[in-house]
Amino acid sequence: MTWLELRYWRQLSISTLVGIPELSQQRKGKTAAGGIYGVVRHPRYLSAGIGMIANALIVNYLGVYVLLIAVVPLVT
What we know:
This protein is mainly α.
C-alpha cells in the first residue's frame, strides 16, 4: 500500500491529489498514462482496497470481515 502511494504521489501534484483541477472551469490536464498509471489504472483505489483488507486481517473481528464482503460487490 505504501509503495503504491509513494508512486502516485511522485507523479501527481498536491492540487491534483485533492481534486482542484476538477473544480476549475479550465481543465488543461490530460490522462496520466506513464509511471504507476501505466500498470494500474486507479492506484489510489487499489491502495485503499489493500488497506481495507489489511485492516480486516489485523483487527480479526467477524464484523469487519462481513463489512468487507458487503462492500466489495458495491465497489466493483
